[in-house]
Design goal:
Structural class of chain A: alpha+beta
Largest sheet of chain A: 4 strands, antiparallel
Largest interface: A-B, 57 and 59 residues
Strand order of the largest sheet of chain A: 1-2-3-8
Distance between the termini of chain A: 46 Å
Number of helices of chain A: 11
Oligomer: heterotrimer
Shape of chain C: globular
Radius of gyration of chain A: 28 Å
Number of strands of chain C: 10
Strand order of the largest sheet of chain C: 6-7-8-3-9-10
Order of helices and strands of chain A: HHHHEEEEHHEEEEHHHHH
C-alpha cells in the first residue's frame, strides 16, 4: 500500500505532548531558579549571607523546656535549638495522639449509643469542637481558663509531692540511685514479661484445644503492676525521687510540665478527638447491618459480635482517615507559638529567624521537617491499606 | 373446582399503647438497659449542675448595655457582653472604619449586599440562580474593591492593613474561596493528566502544600514573599496572607475535586469522545459539572476549614476577628473578661462554620436521593 | 431442575415452634396481624406472598431479629421475650440463611463456619474445624475452605452460609429468600442443598418464590398477604385448588414462568 503519510507536527499528539511538557518543565525550573536567586540577592542586600554556618553559633536565648535534650543557655548552639524544637514538637504530638485517640474513640462509640441523650450529647460535642478555629480554642483554654484560675508558685495547689500553679505542673522525677539494684529490677521485669508471653501463648493453645478461656489481659495487667512493684521492693527500691522544692520565684528540681504545653495538648486533644469521633462513627456504621444480624442469628453474644465481626471490619474504614488526623494534629502543634510553648516553629521559624534573618535556610528546614513527617504518614497509610486489602476475585 | 372464597382482609389496628407514644420512647431510648439508665441519670445530673448556672451567667444575669466596665463590675454575677456594644464597629470592621464613623456605610453596604446575594442562592426554588451566582462571584468583588478599598469616585482609600475584625476575616475567606476553587480544579485535572511532567508537577504541588502547617506558610508568605521579588515590589501584608491561604487551600480543594472526578464512570468521557468532543469541551461540559456536583460536600468542607484558617493571620499581626477578641481581652479597659471575649468570637466562627456544615449535609442528602432515582 | 418427583412425606414429631396471636407494628404500621402458626418437628414449610406481605418479618421474629408487640412465640419450649438468655438459647437452636448471604468478608470460609461453635458452644478449635469440613463437604465445596468469601461466586457463598448455620446443629432452619439474589444458573445448586437437608429430616421454614421447590419438598405451603396468613395447605391442594381469590391472583401472577 502507500507509505504512511506523515502527520503534520502541530497535529501530532505525541509531538504536542512533548512540547507542552518541555515548556512546563522549563517554566517551573526557570521560575524556581530565579526565585531562589532573587531571594539570595535580597538577603545579601540585607547583610545576610545565606548559609548554614550560623548553626554553630551560640544561641543567645533560653529554652525552658527540654525534657530529653540538654539545653544550656550560653553553650547550646542554634542547631541545638533546631533539635530541641523537633523534640518538643514530637512530644506534644505523641501526647496529643494518644489522648485524642482515646477520647475520639469513646465519643465516636457513644455517638452510636441507643441512649438518645448521650448520643445527642456526643453529637453536640463534635459539632461544637469541630467548628471553632483551633487557634481560638488554644487561646481560650490557656488565657481565659487555665492562666487566670491557677495560683502563683507561692500559693501552688499541693497534692502530695505534686504541685499545680500558673507556671505548670511539677512532679517528682525518678532518679536511679542504686544502679545495680536498678539493673536487677529491669532484669526481673524482663523475665516477668517473657513469662507472661509464654503464659499467653499457652492460654491460646488451651483455648483452641478445649474451648476454655482465661482472662489473659486482666491477669497480665495485674501481674505487671502488682508483680512489678513487688519485684521493685525485692530489688531494694533502687529509685529515689527528685522532688520539686519551692525556691524564691519558682520550683527547682523534679519534672515540670509547663502550662503552655498542657494548654496546647488539652486543646489539640479536644479538637482532634471530634474529628476522630466522626471517623469512628462512620467506620462502625459502614459495617452492614446484615453482618451483625448474621452474627446474632448464629447465637454470638453482643460482646462477641462487636469484637469478632464489627470491630475488625470497622477498623479498616476508621484507621486511614485517623492516621491523617494524627498528621493534622502534628501540624497543628505549630500553633504553639500563640501560647509560648517552645516547639519547632516557635523556636526555629520564630525566634531563630528573628535573630539571624536566615529566612531561606530556616524556613526551608522547617518545611522539610513537616514534609518528611507527611511523607512518612503516606507510607504508613499505603502499607496499611495494602495489608488489609480484602482478598477478592 | 371448589368454591373460591373472597378474602376479606382484617382491618388495621393501632399498636398497643405500651409500644408507641412518648412513654415507650422514653423507656426505649433513655432507659433501655441498666447501663443506659445510669448514663441517663449521670447526664441529667451533669446537665442540671452546669447548664442552668451557665445560662444564668451568660444570658439571664448578663450585662449587655453600658459604655464601660463599671456596668459589669457592678453586676459581677453575669457575663460582660458590654464590650460588644462598645466595640461593635471595631469588631466588625476594624480600627479604621471604627474611628471614622462617616465611612461606616461602606463595609455595612458590602455586608448587606453579600447576604442579599447569598441567601436566595441557598434555597432550592429561587429563580435566576445563574444570574445571582454571576453577581456574587463576578460583580460583588468589583463592588467590594471600589467601595471598601476605595480611591475612586470620591471615596477615600483605605488600605488593606486598615481593615480589621470580621471584615478582614470575611475578605480573606471570600478571596480564598473564590480563588482556591478554580486553582484546585485545574490542579485536579492536571493530576489526572496523561502527560507525566504535568502530572508530577501537580502531584508535587498538592503534596507540598498539604504536608506543611499553615502557620509555616503564613510565615513564609509574610517573611519570604518580599524576598522572592526584586527590591521595590511592595506586597501588602493582607495580600501576602491571602496568597498564602489561597495556595494552601487550593491543594485541599484539588483533592476534593479529584475525588469527584474519580467517581465519574469512564463511560461518560468515552461517550463524549465518541461524539467528537475535544479534551477541554469534554471536561467543561461533561465531566466537570458532574464531578463538582458529587464533590460539593468535600469542597464545602475545605471552605469551612479555610474559614477557620483565617484566624491564623492573628499570629502574623493582622487584626482579624480573633485578634480583635484577643486585644479586647488584653486591653486596659476590658482586662479580665477574656472568657466573654473568646466566647463571643468563638460563637461567631461557630455560627458560620456550623451553618456551612449543615448546609453541606443537607445538600449531600438531597443529592443522594436524586441519584438513587 | 430437580423438581420432578415429590419427596417422601415428612415424619412429624411434636411442636417445635408455636406462634399464637402474633401482632407486630412498625411505628403505626400494622405489619403482622394475628398470626397463629404451629410448626412440628420435621415439617417443611414454604411461605410465599407478594412483597410487603410480612413473610420475612414473620420468620425474623422467630429468632428475634425483629421484635413483636403482641402475642407469643415459643421455640423448643422456650418463650421468646426480651430476656436475653431466652433469646440466646433460641438463637443457638435456630439457624438462619439470608438473602444476601452475610458471610464475614474478613474471615476465610472455614473461619466463618467455626466462629460460632468456638465462641458460643465453646467447641475446641480442632473439633470445630472437623465439623466445619464435614458440612462443607455436605454442601459440596470442601476445597474452598481456605478461600475468602470475596473469591467465591454467589451460589458458593450461599452454600457456605448454609454450612455455617448447620455447624451450630440447629433444630430448625429459617431461609429468607435464599435464592433471590442469585443468578439463575446458581439457583439450582443451592436448592439441591436445601432438598438434601429436607431429605435428612431438617425442620425448615422457607420464604421463597421457587414454587418448584415448594411442590417437591414442602409439606405445607402458607400464603401471606397484608400481614396475615390467608391460606395454608398441602402443596398439591394449594397449587391446584386455591381457596381464596387473593391466592388465585397471586398464583396466576407468579406461575407465568
Amino acid at each position: 500500500m502507500t507509505d504512511r503519510t506523515r502527520i503534520p507536527l502541530h497535529r501530532d499528539p505525541k509531538f504536542r505532548a512533548l512540547v507542552i511538557q518541555i515548556l512546563a518543565l522549563a517554566f517551573v525550573v526557570y521560575g524556581f531558579y530565579s526565585l531562589f536567586q532573587t531571594t539570595v540577592d535580597n538577603l545579601v542586600a540585607r547583610g545576610i549571607q545565606t548559609g548554614t554556618s550560623f548553626f554553630d553559633e551560640v544561641a543567645p536565648f533560653q529554652i525552658g523546656f527540654s525534657p530529653f535534650f540538654d539545653y544550656k543557655l550560653g553553650e547550646s548552639t542554634y542547631i541545638d535549638v533546631f533539635f530541641v524544637g523537633i523534640q518538643n514538637t514530637i512530644l506534644v504530638a505523641v501526647l496529643g495522639i494518644v489522648a485524642a485517640t482515646i477520647l475520639g474513640f469513646f465519643i465516636g462509640v457513644v455517638r452510636l449509643s441507643p441512649n438518645w441523650l448521650i448520643s445527642r450529647g456526643a453529637l453536640a460535642y463534635i459539632e461544637i469542637f469541630r467548628n471553632v478555629p483551633l487557634l481560638l480554642q488554644i487561646m481560650f483554654w490557656n488565657f481565659a481558663i487555665f492562666l487566670p484560675s491557677l495560683p502563683a508558685p507561692k500559693n501552688s495547689i499541693e497534692m502530695g509531692a505534686f504541685y499545680l500553679n500558673a507556671r505548670g505542673f511539677h512532679t517528682p522525677l525518678p532518679v536511679i540511685d542504686d544502679s545495680t539494684g536498678f539493673a536487677l529490677w529491669m532484669a526481673m521485669l524482663a523475665v516477668l514479661c517473657v513469662g507472661l508471653i509464654v503464659f499467653a501463648r499457652r492460654a491460646k493453645v488451651r483455648f483452641q484445644e478445649t474451648g476454655q478461656q482465661l482472662p489473659v489481659v486482666w491477669i497480665s495487667l495485674g501481674a505487671i503492676i502488682g508483680g512489678g512493684y513487688i519485684l521493685y521492693l525485692i530489688a531494694g527500691s533502687p529509685l529515689i525521687f527528685d522532688e520539686p522544692v519551692l525556691g524564691r520565684f519558682n520550683f527547682k528540681g523534679g519534672g515540670q510540665l509547663p502550662l503552655p504545653l498542657f494548654s496546647l495538648w488539652f486543646a489539640l486533644t479536644l479538637y482532634t478527638a471530634a474529628f476522630i469521633a466522626e471517623n469512628v462513627r462512620a467506620g462502625i456504621q459502614s459495617v452492614s447491618h446484615g453482618q451483625t444480624e448474621a452474627s446474632h442469628a448464629l447465637g454470638l453474644s453482643r460482646k462477641d459480635t462487636v469484637r469478632l465481626v464489627t470491630i475488625p471490619q470497622a477498623l479498616r474504614v476508621i484507621i486511614p482517615p485517623t492516621i491523617s488526623q494524627y498528621l493534622n494534629l502534628t501540624k497543628n502543634s505549630s500553633l504553639a507559638v500563640a501560647v509560648g510553648y517552645e516547639e519547632l516553629v516557635a523556636v526555629w521559624a520564630g525566634i531563630t529567624l528573628n535573630q539571624t534573618g536566615q529566612a531561606l535556610v530556616i524556613i526551608g528546614m522547617t518545611v522539610a521537617v513537616y514534609e518528611c513527617l507527611s511523607l512518612f504518614t503516606s507510607f504508613v497509610l499505603n502499607w496499611y491499606n495494602k495489608r488489609i486489602q480484602l482478598t477478592e476475585r | 373446582m371448589a368454591d373460591v372464597k373472597t378474602f376479606v382482609p382484617a382491618p388495621d389496628r393501632a399498636p398497643p399503647s405500651s409500644a408507641v407514644g412518648p412513654i415507650a420512647w422514653i423507656r426505649d431510648n433513655l432507659f433501655g438497659s441498666i447501663g443506659s439508665s445510669i448514663a441517663t441519670l449521670v447526664f441529667f445530673y451533669l446537665f442540671f449542675s452546669y447548664v442552668p448556672p451557665f445560662v444564668e451567667w451568660a444570658l439571664i444575669n448578663a450585662n449587655w448595655t453600658g459604655s464601660d466596665r463599671s456596668v459589669c463590675e457592678a453586676n459581677a454575677a453575669g457575663a460582660c457582653w458590654t464590650f460588644i456594644n462598645v466595640r461593635l464597629e471595631q469588631i466588625l470592621f476594624g480600627l479604621y472604619f471604627a474611628s471614622n464613623p462617616d465611612e461606616l456605610w461602606r463595609p455595612t453596604l458590602i455586608f448587606i449586599l453579600f447576604f442579599a446575594l447569598l441567601l436566595p442562592l441557598l434555597f432550592e426554588k429561587t429563580p435566576g440562580k445563574k444570574w445571582l451566582t454571576i453577581a456574587l462571584l463576578g460583580v460583588f468583588p468589583v463592588v467590594f474593591y471600589f467601595v471598601v478599598y476605595g480611591g475612586y469616585f470620591g471615596i477615600s482609600q483605605s488600605n488593606t492593613t486598615q481593615w480589621g475584625g470580621f471584615l478582614l476575616t470575611f475578605a480573606l475567606a471570600f478571596v480564598g474561596i473564590l480563588l482556591a476553587l478554580p486553582i484546585g480544579i485545574l490542579l485536579a485535572l492536571g493530576r489526572r493528566s496523561e502527560l507525566p511532567v504535568i502530572r508530577s508537577i501537580c502531584v508535587i504541588y498538592i503534596e507540598f502544600w498539604r504536608g506543611t502547617p499553615l502557620i509555616t506558610i503564613l510565615f513564609m508568605a509574610s517573611v519570604m514573599l518580599p524576598l522572592f521579588f526584586p527590591a521595590g515590589v511592595e506586597f501588602d501584608k493582607v495580600v501576602r496572607a491571602m496568597i498564602g491561604i489561597t495556595l494552601f487551600q487550593s491543594a485541599y480543594t484539588a483533592e476534593a475535586v479529584r475525588g469527584g472526578l474519580a467517581a465519574i464512570p469512564k463511560g461518560q468521557s468515552e461517550a463524549a469522545m465518541a461524539l467528537g468532543l475535544g479534551y477541554w469541551r469534554r471536561t467543561v461540559f461533561i465531566t466537570l459539572p458532574q464531578a463538582l456536583k458529587i464533590s460539593i460536600p468535600s469542597i464545602v468542607n475545605t471552605f469551612i476549614a479555610l474559614f477557620k484558617d483565617t484566624s491564623l493571620v492573628s499570629i502574623i499581626g493582622l487584626l482579624d476577628l480573633l485578634n480583635m477578641a484577643q486585644t479586647t481581652a488584653r486591653s486596659m479597659e476590658w482586662k479580665g473578661y477574656d472568657i466573654e471575649a473568646f466566647l463571643f468570637a468563638g460563637f461567631v466562627y461557630w455560627a458560620f462554620c456550623y451553618g456551612m456544615s449543615r448546609y453541606s449535609q443537607n445538600l449531600e442528602r438531597k443529592l443522594d436521593t436524586n441519584r438513587r432515582n | 431442575m430437580t423438581t420432578d418427583t415429590q419427596m417422601a412425606p415428612a415424619e412429624l414429631g411434636e411442636s417445635i415452634i408455636t406462634i399464637d396471636g402474633l401482632n407486630k407494628w412498625y411505628g403505626q404500621f400494622h405489619v403482622l396481624k394475628d398470626i397463629d402458626l404451629d410448626v412440628k418437628r420435621g415439617e417443611r414449610i414454604v411461605i410465599c406472598g407478594p412483597s410487603g406481605s410480612g413473610k420475612s418479618t414473620l420468620i425474623r421474629c422467630i429468632n428475634r431479629l425483629e421484635t413483636h408487640q403482641e402475642g407469643s412465640i415459643v421455640v423448643d419450649g422456650i418463650e421468646l421475650t426480651d430476656d436475653t438468655k431466652h433469646i440466646n438459647d433460641i438463637r443457638r437452636e435456630v439457624g438462619m440463611v439470608f438473602q444476601h448471604f452475610n458471610l464475614f468478608p474478613h474471615l476465610t470460609v472455614l473461619e466463618n463456619c467455626t466462629l460460632a461453635p468456638i465462641w458460643v458452644r465453646k467447641t475446641p478449635k480442632r473439633e470445630a474445624e472437623e465439623l466445619a469440613m464435614q458440612y462443607l463437604e455436605r454442601v459440596k465445596i470442601p476445597e474452598q475452605a481456605n478461600k475468602y468469601p470475596g473469591q467465591l461466586s454467589g451460589g458458593q457463598q450461599q452454600r457456605v452460609a448454609i454450612a455455617r448455620s448447620l455447624c451450630m446443629n440447629p433444630r430448625v432452619m429459617l431461609f429468607d429468600e435464599p435464592t433471590s439474589a442469585l443468578d439463575p444458573e446458581m439457583i439450582a445448586e443451592v436448592l439441591d442443598v436445601m432438598v438434601g437437608l429436607a431429605e435428612d429430616g431438617m425442620t425448615m421454614l422457607c420464604v421463597t418464590h421457587e414454587m418448584g421447590f415448594a411442590r417437591k419438598v414442602a409439606n405445607r405451603v402458607i400464603f401471606m398477604d397484608g400481614g396475615q396468613i390467608v391460606e395454608q395447605n398441602e402443596p398439591e391442594e394449594f397449587f391446584n385448588n386455591p381457596q381464596n381469590d387473593r391466592t388465585q391472583l397471586f398464583l396466576s401472577q407468579i406461575l407465568q414462568h
